[in-house]
Amino acid sequence: MSSSSLAALPEADLRPGTPPILRVEAPAEPTRWAAENRDALRARVTEHGVLLVRGLDLRDTERTAAVFAALAGDPMTEREAFAPREVKGPGLYSTTAWPANQPMCMHHELSYRLEIPGLMLFACLRAPGQGGATAVADAEQVLQALPSALRERFEREGWMLTRSYNDEIGASLEESFGTDDRAAIEHYCHAQDIDFAWQPDGSLRTRQLRSAVVTHPVTGRRCWFNQIAFLNEWTLAPEVREYLVDEYGADGLPFNTRFGDGSPIGEDIVQLLNATYENHTRREPWQAGDVLLVDNIRTAHSREAFTGEREVLVGMAEPRRLADCAPTPEASLR
């Protein structure tokens, strides 16, 4: 236990509609402050599922990496990225390359992997002109708010992610798998329960079946945990979806989601999921220097559309095995 305790920190601001905000005086040594208060800060994240720390005044990559390490230890390396990121250092990334005028709807980072980050860390080095909040939603509340029949079907069947890798849209093979070597990619897919097929043009198509609902390893509560809505074709802007279908065909979209039995997920269901998220969304505009800690299983996050220059760095930590979170279904595609 560090010399600081939960009581040593000021109370977080718990205003409705915003994540908990902890306001602190800018420390002379942010990394040391983070190390000394790590246990207390992490206790707040366990309590609330998310914590925005305002006042650390992080403005550069090196200091951000050091603070992240002090808060969370060794970072995770991203694998199976759905879109490119810029690597800023070991385990430190830019936000996902995504058009500024299009929102990224609620999701749990890398929830389609067998090893998932338990903790997400975000640091705002430059706040956007307007919009661009990293909003959050409580996954326990979202699960309970969904219609029981839909919730039970996803819990029974899970969800399926389909991907088509090409050199134009989304993450490349090397960006996603860390290599473009076929044998290494096939080895990875076998180890991660990913069904794959190389196409005549050399592109790769994959399918993976994952749980839509898991048990939180600390709280023991069931959480809606997936990227069903975010990676579904009906979340795309209509003109983007139309272009991709025309260009690559309905089965060749860079990513799409289905029910666990392989049947399509209709636009009405995607709209329902996104509306349920919105009903439980909390948001706070970024200020330069902010740090946001997100329990990736308990709390979904999004990125809202924005204008101006926005620079947010991302770290992932505390790897958790999906198998340790009581997933359903447990069977893979194989």
TrEMBL record:
Region labeled Disordered — which residues?
1-22
Annotated keywords: Antibiotic biosynthesis, Dioxygenase, Iron, Oxidoreductase
Q: What is this protein called?
A: TauD/TfdA family dioxygenase
Q: Name the domain of life this protein comes from.
A: Bacteria
Q: Which cofactor does it need?
A: Fe(2+)
Q: Where is the TauD/TfdA-like domain?
A: 28-315
PANTHER family xrefs: GAMMA-BUTYROBETAINE HYDROXYLASE-RELATED (PTHR10696), TAUD_TFDA-LIKE DOMAIN-CONTAINING PROTEIN (PTHR10696:SF56)
Its GO biological process annotations read: antibiotic biosynthetic process
One GO MF term, please?
dioxygenase activity
Native source species: Streptomyces adustus
Query: Pfam families given for it?
Result: TauD
